[in-house]
Amino acid sequence: MVTLFHDMMHKEIEVYVNNMIAKSKEEEGHLVNLKQLFERLKKYKLRLDPVKCTFGVKSGKLLGFVVSEKSIEVNPDKVKAIMELPPPSTMREVRSFLGRLNYIARFIANLTDKCQPLFRLLRKNVAVEWDDECQKAFDTVKAYLIQPPMLVPPSRDRPLILYLTVRRQSLGCMLGQKDDSHRQSKQSII
């Protein structure tokens, strides 16, 4: 797919394996981009499943996130699934919980620190003993996800602020800017 659309990628469209999104700043340009996309699909005899297609929307779910012209947010369905999980009782359940968090890690500041007690449960030849520290970490992450941050594109007229966190077991950074109300807006959490 990438080869077929290489000249359009990162301009008019984005392709992620079998997911595709056409993007435009104006409605007229969008119709031109769609026409070009459909011509390319026709040229290579590719078909789209109409049930999976959505047209003329300003936001939508893509790769497990809600993407709009203003931001990228965690899909509320993903958050709900995490919020409904009971505390893990086996190593497999701990891995599953941490895997779900890893998928949305860019939205959770200091995730490694928050989950440190849970990482201890993944050590070889260690029984899963869910203690108060594990429960606190589990509850802290869930509380954070009640209002997860959204990632927004940077504003060219404001300075970028890089925050670094260096700890013994982890390091992280966040790129942000202040908005009009001097609140922090996040561009990326790593």
Describe this structure in words.
The protein has 190 residues and is α+β, with helices and mostly antiparallel strands. It is 32% helix and 21% strand. Among the domains are: 2-56, no CATH class; 72-146, Alpha-Beta Plaits (2-Layer Sandwich). Strand 7 (171-178) and strand 8 (184-189) form a beta hairpin. The protein is globular and about 60 Å long. The two termini are 28 Å apart. The mean pLDDT is 88. This is Reverse transcriptase/retrotransposon-derived protein RNase H-like domain-containing protein. Keywords: Multifunctional enzyme. GO terms for molecular function: catalytic activity. Residues 130-183 form the Reverse transcriptase/retrotransposon-derived protein RNase H-like domain.
Name the descriptors.
3-stranded antiparallel β-sheet, single chain, 8 strands, Alpha-Beta Plaits, 190 residues, 32% helix, alpha+beta
SSE inventory with pairings:
Elements: E1 13-16, E2 19-22, H1 27-43, E3 59-62, E4 65-68, E5 72-74, H2 76-83, H3 91-103, H4 111-114, H5 116-120, H6 132-144, E6 161-166, E7 171-178, E8 184-189
Antiparallel strand pairs: 1-2, 3-4, 4-5, 6-7, 7-8
Main sheet properties: 3 strands, antiparallel
- CATH top level assignment of one domain: Alpha Beta
SSE pattern, N- to C-terminal: EEHEEEHHHHHEEE
Structural class: alpha+beta
Which fold name fills CATH's third level, the topology of one domain? Alpha-Beta Plaits
GO molecular function: catalytic activity
Organism: Punica granatum
Pfam family, one: RT_RNaseH_2
Keywords: Multifunctional enzyme
